[in-house]
Design brief:
The protein has 50 residues and is mainly alpha-helical. The radius of gyration is 20 Å and the shape is rod-shaped. The mean pLDDT is 85.
């Protein structure tokens, strides 16, 4: 719908869709990696205390 409103061709629409998927995937990966790093640090600190 949005692409049609802007008058984008099918190739442009496909390019935007692929770029969006890559961006969302990369953002999710960085977010998950950061969460895993925090969990790992907490586990290391708990093991050092024991």
């Amino acid at each position: 719908m949005f692409a049609i409103a802007l008058g984008m061709t099918k190739l442009e629409t496909l390019t935007v869709a692929i770029s969006s998927i890559i961006f969302i995937g990369a953002f999710s990966w960085v977010s998950i990696k950061g969460d895993l790093r925090k969990i790992a640090e907490e586990l290391i600190q708990e093991n050092e205390r024991d």
